[in-house]
Model the fold of this input.
Amino acid sequence: MKDGLRFVDSDMHIMEPPDLFERYLDPKFKHRVRVPIGGDGKPKRATSAQIVIDGLAGTGDADMQQHRKRARAGATQSTQPLSGSRLADTGRLDFAIQRGYDPEAQVMGMELEGVDIAVLYPTNGLSLLARNDMDPELSLAICQAYNNWISEFCRYSPDRLKFVAMLPMHDVHVACRELVRGVRELGAVGSFIRPNMMNGHYWHSNYWDPLYTVHEDLNVTWGFHEGTGAHYSYHNVLYGENRFYRHVASHWIEMQQALIAMIIGGVFEFHPKLRVGFLEAQNSWVPGLLSRIEWDYPQYRDTHAPYLSMTPREYFRRNCWAAVEGSEPEIEATAGLIGADRMCISTDYPHFDSNFPHVAENLLKNVEREIAAQIFMGGAHLYGFDDTHFAKADAAARR
Done:
C-alpha cells in the first residue's frame, strides 16, 4: 500500500537477463539471434539495438543514433546505460543493479514505491519484434523464450508479480495460440502489444478479430505499449536518428491512432468485453481526441460507421484505461474529463526516464487523495484484480 491506499502498478518493467536466449530460445533458432558477448565469452547486458535477428539489428533506447550527443564533456558516474536521464547519477537503482535485476530486486522496488501488485512488461522485448515480414515461427520462438522466462521470474512472488505475454503478431493465429498458452499454462494476465500497424494490418482490420475474441474469452487485458523506433513506424522516416523527436511523437501519436481505429473501426462495438490499456504515454491526449471524434460524429457516423451504437466517450469508459506516471500537471483536469476510474498508474521502473521511487508520492502531491485512490486502483480494474488478489498479495508481503 501507499499511504493506506491500494496500489497496482499497471506497467512495471523488468530487465531481461543477458543470457535469456541462450537459456530459453529453441535451439533450432539460436543461430538466427545474436547477442553481444564479453571478454569471458558470455552474453552481456545490451540494448535491443545491439541484438541482431536474422541479420537485422533491433531498435531501442540507443537505436538509429549514430553519434551520442552528450550535453557536457566527461564521463558520467551513472550506472545506467543512458546519460542525462532522471535516474542518472542518483544511485536509486544500485540495489537492483547489484542483484542483476532479479526478482528480489523487483519486489524491493515495489516496496520502495508502496506497490501491492505489479504487472510486468519487457524492456528489450518492447522492440525486438518491431519489424514487418518477420518469419512467424521465429517470432513465436522469441515470444516463447521470453514468456517462459518471465513466468519463472514471477514465481518468486506469484501473488504480487504478474506479467503480460509477449505475442508473435506476425501471424494472428499463432498469436492466439501463444496467448492461450501464456494465460492457461504460464499465468499471464494479458498481452503486450505495440500500437504500431503490423504487416499492413491496422487495428480496425477484421484480420485481428480472432485475437480480440480470444482476449474476451480468456477475460484478459490487451495492453498497448509503445517502445519507440519500430522499423516499420513512419516516425522513423519522419525523424530519423533524432530520438527526442521519435520518443515524443511515437508515445502519443501511435496511441492516438490505435484508439481512433478501435473506436471508429468498431472494435469496441463488436468486442464489448475487451479491456484495453494505453500505457506509458500519459493520458492528457485522451479527452481532446475523444472530443475530436465526437465533433465529426454527426457528419460521418451514418455514412462511414453506421455500426456504432454508442458515443466515443461511452466506448472509452466501458473498454479503456489510460496510464499516468504521477507527476503530469494535467492529471486532475484529465480525471475531471474522462473519470479517474478510467486512469491507472505506471512507475516505469527501472527505465531511465522513470521518476522511481517517487512516482506514488508525486501523484499524492498533484491530486486530491480521493482521485489518487482511484488512479492507484485503476490497474486492478484494467487487469481484473479483486479483493482476493489483494488478500493474497498482503499475505505474500508479510512473508
Observations:
- The first helix runs from residue 20 to 24.
- Confidence is low (pLDDT under 50) at residues 67-84.
- Residues 8-16+101-398 form a domain with the TIM Barrel fold (CATH 3.20.20.140).
- The radius of gyration is 20 Å.
